[in-house]
Amino acid sequence: MTAEQVSKTFRLPHERTHTLKERVLHPRRRSGTEQFQALQDVSFEVASGEFFGIVGRNGSGKSTLLKCLAGIYGVDSGEIRVAGRLSPFIELGVGFNPDLTARENVVINAVMLGLSPVEARRRFDEVLAFAELEEFVDLKLKNYSSGMHVRLAFAVMVQVEAEVLLIDEVLAVGDLAFQQKCYDEFERMQAEGRTILFVTHAMSLVERFCHRAMLLERGKLVSVGEPHEVAQLYNEVNFGRGQKALAAAVGEGAPVEVADVWFEGADGGRTETMVQGADARLLVEIRANVDLDDPIVTLELKNEADIRMFSTNTSWLDRPIGRLRAGERARFSVNLSLSLAPGRYTPIATVQRQAGGTRETLDRTANFPALLIEGGERVGGGLVDLPHEVEFERLGAAQETTPR
Question: Residues 161-173: what's their mean pLDDT?
Fold first, then answer.
């Protein structure tokens, strides 16, 4: 897929006339308009089989770009070329008829996305099984919840064997279990060599899945590069330090690199699955490429909603790290109890150094296996299930009083 100098402008009316009565009563009223440039000279190329992230703040042009790529919007200037069958998953329930049942909508949408009617009917059971909606198959879609809508829509999309997938951040509507099923599908599609363009605000997902990513800001392309670099730029731009972020972008040949991040269980072996409440060890190994004085190593855990659930760094040590020599490797580890809600948690490792009154990021990555925490015997249901003790005490019958 290639986009060259793509621009898109919308005309926004200052005042709208909604009814015929308003037109009759105010025949001479004229509503002025202004132009809003959603995209301006955006150019990029996505290789076949690449998982490509598109990030940016609200209003930066991400969804508009996806709609232009899908052919929903025409472009004002520029050119878009797509090789292969394209399947867009951009807005929740687009193409669904609320007065039809799930059975009818699945077949219609699958045909619209390129399957033959025979093939659409043959895959119907797989779609319903993936969406976990078998008992609601004959219910009209207008009676579905938003979560049921997104499950059905995504289930149809993954059955269509398109070479290019466009996925907007509608997956945030699904519950935790369904989101995990979607992420498993991402990994499967990656292994199959599908080309995927993924819009999201979750930087942990960008660093986990994407081969490369791009950052948009006010319709303009800011950067295309490695996922952790673009994620860092996004975070800087989000907090109003865009120019500083561009100047501090991390390139190849960084002074130090995050070489490995992993979890260990009680037996000391590597693991990617543990039970809630278990004791674990989180480790990061770094490699210095040049002599480096007192690097600061940070370890974080983010959940699937990109919320930071835990963070610590080498400042908690009772001694400075000192100098790392070029070629030297070092390890930082933390022992913790997994008092977190069941779900998948992405470890993020960052290496920084003190530069005047600020910290300069030298390397940051989330491209290592996440940890799946399974529910134990008792699950409280919060983001964090703090260890606690409970008591219940009977106080006897309430004393009746006579009104005066």
Answer: 75
Contact 44, 69 (CB under 8 A): no
pLDDT tier at 274, thresholds 50, 70, 90: very high
- Helices 146-159, 124-131: axis angle to 10 degrees equals 140
Sign of CA dihedral 142, 148, 150, 153: negative
**What are the tokens at 125?**
């059971």
For every residue of 320-373, DSSP letters joined together read: ---EEPTT-EEEEEEEEE--B-SEEEEEEEEEEEEETTEEEEEEEE--S--EEE
In sign, the C-alpha dihedral spanning 253, 255, 261, 266 is: positive
Closest Cα to residue 348, out of 302, 294, 402? 302
| CA separation for the pair 152, 63 (Å, rounded) | 21
Model confidence at 273, in pLDDT bands (50, 70, 90)?
very high
Q: Tell me which of 77-91, 154-168, 202-216, 250-264 is least confident.
A: 250-264
CB 280 within 8 Å of CB 336: yes
First to last CA, the chain: 84
pLDDT band for position 195 (50/70/90)?
Answer: very high
Mean pLDDT of 133-156: 83
Structural tokens at position 8: 């898109």
Helix (H, G, I), strand (E, B) or coil at 154: helix
Say whether 97 sits in a helix, a strand or coil.
Answer: coil
CB-based contact 250:232 (threshold 8 Å): yes
- Give the number of other CB atoms < 10 A from CB of residue 175: 11
Give dist(CA 125, CA 264) in Å, integer: 40
- Which of the 8 DSSP states describes residue 267? T
Check: CB of residue 227 under 8 Å from CB of residue 69. no
Q: Enter the pTM of the model.
A: 0.59
Residue 298 CA to residue 313 CA, distance in Å, equals 4
